[in-house]
Amino acid sequence: MAKILTLTMNPALDLTLQLGQLELGQVNRSNAMLTHAAGKGLNVAQVLADLGHELTVAGFLGIDNQQAFEALFERRHFVDEFVRVPGETRSNIKMAESSGRITDLNGPGPQVSEAAQQALFARVEQIAPGFDVVVVAG
């Protein structure tokens, strides 16, 4: 199978709440709650890993809440090439109603310094030739 690098420039911690029906302006109680490391590039990486490909993941991660991402990388056997930046990786809230309607609230990503950007560019430039495919995602 292929050796693939995915770049996730703005990963997120997704908090998914399941509820009957969202009542705006009211207190809503969820039936279930799930938190997981996500982002388009990481979601693609998980599908590609399920198909048997070897994955390396890279991008920017906030150091204040990197643990969920590191747990995902370890569990899925992803090689971690993320550049750590000060602060938190963004958090998103997904409210899934029993009707199937989903409401997303997406938070802002961390500030990424010029030095961190250059560090990621240098890292990718160094490792990219070893991959069959590179996926760039938001």
Automatic annotation (TrEMBL):
<dbReference type="GO" id="GO:0008443">
    <property type="term" value="F:phosphofructokinase activity"/>
</dbReference>
<dbReference type="InterPro" id="IPR011611">
    <property type="entry name" value="PfkB_dom"/>
</dbReference>
<dbReference type="GO" id="GO:0005829">
    <property type="term" value="C:cytosol"/>
</dbReference>
<keyword id="KW-0418">Kinase</keyword>
<dbReference type="InterPro" id="IPR029056">
    <property type="entry name" value="Ribokinase-like"/>
</dbReference>
<feature type="domain" description="Carbohydrate kinase PfkB">
    <location>
        <begin position="10"/>
        <end position="138"/>
    </location>
</feature>
<keyword id="KW-0808">Transferase</keyword>
<dbReference type="InterPro" id="IPR002173">
    <property type="entry name" value="Carboh/pur_kinase_PfkB_CS"/>
</dbReference>
<dbReference type="Pfam" id="PF00294">
    <property type="entry name" value="PfkB"/>
</dbReference>
<protein>
    <submittedName>
        <fullName>Phosphofructokinase</fullName>
    </submittedName>
</protein>
